Each structure stands twice: as structure tokens, then as C-alpha cells.
Amino acid sequence: MQSRTSIAGTALVTAAALVTAGFLPTKAAAAERPTSSQVGTIDFRIGSRATVRVVGARIIVIGDDGDVLAQGVSNSNGEWRVSLPLKPDKRFEAVRAMDTVTAIAVAKGYNEAVVFEVPITANTVQPIILNPLRANQRNEPLAFLGNLHRHDLAVLIDAYAQKVGLVRQAPVPGEQGYAPWGPDTKKQ
Amino acid sequence: MRRSTKSLVRAMIMGVVSAGFMAYPNHGMVEAQTVYNTPMPSVIRVAIRPNNDPLAPIAYVQTLGFQEYCEDVLPNEWMPSWNAQTLRAGAIAIKMFAWYHTLHPVSTGGWTYDVDNTTNYQQFKYLSGTTITNQAVLSTWNIVYVPATGDVTQLNYRAGIPNNPNWAFVGSNMMAQWGSEYWGRTARLTFPNVLGMYYPGLSIQYI
After folding, report:
1. What does the pLDDT read at residue B24?
2. Helix B131-139 vs helix A4-20: angle between axes, to the nearest 10 degrees?
3. CATH number of the CATH domain containing A52
4. Which residue numbers in chain B have pLDDT < 70?
5. Which of A117, B31, B62, B156 has the highest local Cβ count within 10 Å?
6. pLDDT at residue A188 in the model
7. DSSP letters for B155-198
8. Cβ atoms B84, B136 nearer than 8 A
9. Rounded CA gap, A33 and A50, in Å?
10. Closest CA to B95 of B67, B127, B128, B131
11. Are A46 and A122 part of one and the same domain?
């Protein structure tokens, strides 16, 4: 098993190399995005279901305006790290400063994957698990949802449920501490 | 002929019983699985359900190193931005929960596994470990939280209410994740004290 600490160190070195190699957002794409003093990072980790890391995968990052913001190739640890301007997405205002992008990953021997709503935070880790190509099968692209944290989702739902005045359902029998929101609204 | 065979079998059974070799189940005699007689697992089998959906059918079973599994659970169950002591309490809970389930595997639908990747057990995302949560796992790797008998016990937990002490969970044998953050960050408790809030009768042991 490889030490994650050493991987993190390698990732930092690799990130620095990628920055100098011009893998940061293109000037044109960055200029079109709303200006923000905040910068977030996404650490893409490309792997497969066979518990291996995929080296040489290309990741394309797309902004909400459709522009390619950045692209790069996973290193020997299957990682590619990118820094991007962070324009807080108002949907997540109640949660924390977070932006979202779309990522496409392609790699030799694997089928393509599209990951929607990849969060940009101060330090996002976004795994992408690819499927190996199989002979005589269709091997079509897969769609995934970005690595949104379960606590962030709960806070997001709480904020909007309270905003529209929803009422929680009865507590779930045998379960402690969480009652999901229901469709009813508070009586005026 | 058949009768004589039956008689012979009956006689053999009686002989075995009288000799005390009959294997009657006696659960009291089963040796408990403790941290003293059970090594920490080196690998774990994780049933992967698409999109971490607890009700989705199993797509495949992934076998990976036990430590790597814990590293890929902690940032999904606890927030990496949370207090360091909180993360250590979470790291120990995750490890004990998983250890218990490696001792109680499940076979269903043609699959055999220890845990799945959803909140049926613990949310696991392969390759999602972060530097800060990995440090919490590593710094507590030789620490277990067990009753005086040393039994490998699953430390259960739930999300709890955000930014709240979650008093309802205190002493309940169920840790509130948000509660652990409150007690770690606001009350500045250390991780043994955070664990002690939720799991009465258990204590830290070093292995």
C-alpha cells in the first residue's frame, strides 16, 4: 500500500510542475469568468474498480459557460491537481463558498466518464473511477455526480426547506437523530 | 437390513454422546473476538453500489487495504475542515466499525463482502482521502476504543444536527458527527473525551 502522505507530497510537486507547464486555466477562459479573489483547487484522482490508479488519463474541466477552463494529464499516482478561480455558487450560499464545474476524463483502455457538479472548494478531492474496456460490449460513456459531501447536501436541503417553509416528516422508526423533510408546508 | 443400519447409527450416536463428543451448540463457549486475540484486518471487501445509493444493486466487490479503506471513508463521513481532535475521534470510530464488520461478513445475491460503500455501513469513495484526514487515521492507527473485555465493538454514529452539541446522543452509544465537531472545536475536548461522551463504558487501548 502506498503512503498517502507521500502521494500528497508528490501531488504538490506535480501540481507545481503542471502550473509551470501551463495547465492552469487559459487566459481567455479565466478572463471570461467573473472575477473573484478566491481560488480553489481540485485534486482529481483517476482510478479503476480493480483498485489501481490510472496513469496518463486526460481530464478536461468545463465551466458553467461551456468554456474549457483547464486540462491536464494524471501523473504516476493517477492524480492531477488544478487551481481555478472560485466564484461562490449562490445555490450553496448557506453551505460554504463553493463553485461547480464539469469534468470529462478519458484514458487508454477505459471508457469515458463525465462528472457533473464537481465542487470547487479550498481543497476538493474528486475521484473518478473508470471502467475498463470490455470486448464485445458497448463501452459507452458514464455520467457521475461530483464529490459533494453528505453534510453539505443536508445543509443545502435544510436551507431551502426552511426558505419555502417545509415541515419535517415524522421521525423514522428505530432511527435516531434525523427526520427527512416532507412535502407539506407550514400553515400560515 | 435397514433396521439394523438404523440401530447401528443409533448406537454410534449414543456412544458419541456418552463419550462427550456430541457437538451441541454452546454459544457461551465461543471465544469472543477481541483486540487481544484478533489481529487488525489487512484488507477489507467493499460492495460497491452505484452513486453510493444504499438501495442500488451491487455492481462489484472491491478488495483493498484496510488502512486505505479507512482513509477513503473518513473525509466522506466527517468533514475534512473539522477540528483535528474531532477527526481523530471519527478515525477511531470508522476503524472499529469496519473491523467489527470484517469479522461479520455478509453473503447475499452471489456476493460476499464485509461492508458496502454507502450509509448502510460507512460512505466510502475510492481515492477520496485527503492529507488532513489521512493524518487523523495514521495518528490513531495503534489506538482502539473497546470495552474492558477488549471485544471488537462497532462504534455507531449518525450525522446529528449541524452546529449543535447534540445532547440527545450523549451517552447513547451513538456518536453524533456534528456533535463531535461541536465538542472538539467549541468545547476543545480531546478525542478520547469526545469518544467518552458517546460510548460509555469503553476506553482507549493501544495495540
Report:
1. 46
2. 160
3. 2.60.40.180
4. 1-30
5. B62
6. 60
7. -EEE---TTS--GGGTTTTEEEHHHHHIIIIIS---HHHHHHHH
8. yes
9. 38
10. B67
11. yes
If you average pLDDT over residues A122-151, what whole number do you get? 95
pLDDT band at A32; cut points 50, 70, 90: very low
How large is the ipTM?
Answer: 0.79
Chain A partners within 8 Å of B169 (Cβ): 176-177
Same domain? A12 vs A28: yes
Percent of chain A with pLDDT over 90: 70
Q: Which residues contact B6 (CB under 8 A, 6 or more apart)?
A: none
Residue B31, CB-side half-sphere exposure with 13 Å CA sphere: 6
A95 shares a domain with A184: no
Residue A174 has a pLDDT of 86
Structural domain of A184: 149-188
Per the structure, how many domains does chain A have?
2
Place A133 in a pLDDT band, splitting at 50, 70 and 90.
very high
pLDDT at B19: 43
- The stretch A91-116 carries a mean pLDDT of 96
Ordered by start, the domain boundaries in chain B are 5-206
Q: Which of A10, A44, A125 to mutate to test the interface with B (most CBs of B within 10 A)?
A: A125
Q: Do A151 and B79 touch (CB under 8 A)?
A: yes
Residues of A in contact with B159 (CB under 8 A): 150-151, 154, 177-178
A112 touches chain B (CB under 8 A): no
Chain B residue closest in CA terms to A122: B81
Q: Does A117 lie in the same domain as A36?
A: yes
Residues A73 and A141 in one domain: yes
